[in-house]
Amino acid sequence: MPEWLQIIIRSVVLIAFLIVLTRVVGRKIAARMTFFDIIFAMVLSVLAAAVTLNLIHAAYGFIALITWALAGIGISFLSMKSKMIHELLHGKEAVVIKHGKIMEDQLMKMRFTPEDLLQQLRSKQIFNVADVEFAVMESTGEINALLKSNQQPITPKHLGVETAPQTGAQTVIMDGNIMDEALSTMGLNRGWLRTELDKIGVSPENVFLAQVDAMGDLYVDLFDDAIQPPQPTARQLLLTTLEQAKADLKTFSLETDNQKAKQMYDQCVKELESIVYDVRPLLK
Amino acid sequence: MTTHSKVRQTLACLEGAKATMDVYGEISQDEQARKIFHRNSQKLDLVLDRLKKRVRDLEFEEPQFKGF
What we know:
Number of domains of chain B: 1
Family (chain A): Belongs to the UPF0702 family.
Transmembrane segments (chain A): 6-26, 33-53, 59-78
Helix content of chain B: over 70%
Strand content of chain B: under 5%
Keywords (chain A): Cell membrane, Membrane, Transmembrane, Transmembrane helix
Main location (chain A): membrane
Subcellular location (chain A): Cell membrane
Oligomer: heterodimer
Structural class of chain A: alpha+beta
Number of helices of chain B: 2
Shape of chain B: elongated
């Protein structure tokens, strides 16, 4: 067999072998690889390259490859079962900033210079070490930081604002095709969709994309961009109606001379107030 | 506009609001949201009952407005 044919055959066999191997060892993103994973990958690739180019005897090469592969699988299995082995191979995460103070000895242990630390923090948009309350170096060498509570971004919870639970919107029309499965997961059907589209005066053929949110509001995008479809306003309308009715009842209460009716109106205003308070977060 | 017709108008608006709320109570995907809508729809029912009674009283006091 000529040399070039041998190289082709070996290459193809090795590619197939490595594909199978990478599937078995498990999926890990390159950026999430620990030092051990990288060494393992490097050894395998060098061995594979050497075997392909006939730098070492093919049989020996294959034996080495298979040994490494089996060892890799075995070790990854063991490290999954035992925490000790996992820490031994992949290292342990280290706290590098605690209560806003940098732990110099931990940095030393990890062979991490202050510049490295600052650079890692900057890549997380933290330019001021004073803002960091707590930071951990993961076994991958990446640093994750928790900001001081007064530096954290404001969330609705901080403001004491209640928000409506958001479940994902379902795409019910895509590229002009009605998605029956998405409709049925929302408990809706084609009839409902046709009615909603009729309501906003749009023909189903003209819809490029339509989404229904958790409250049944329909958002549409049309093929014809010259047409402006109305945005869903039903929720806002409900809130406005309630507010309006509340104001009306207040007026009635002021206008009437009948003491009993006055009381009744006032009570209704109070009820409406509590209703508005209750549903407002859902209608925002 | 007479008081009677104004109250009736508000009543109609609130009835519409209650209907919308009932719809939301049915189609909402979140269990918590459903509960809130059902609860408030019931609360709104009480208000509606009171207003209906008030409309009847007004019609009784001033029968000339009846039916308007």
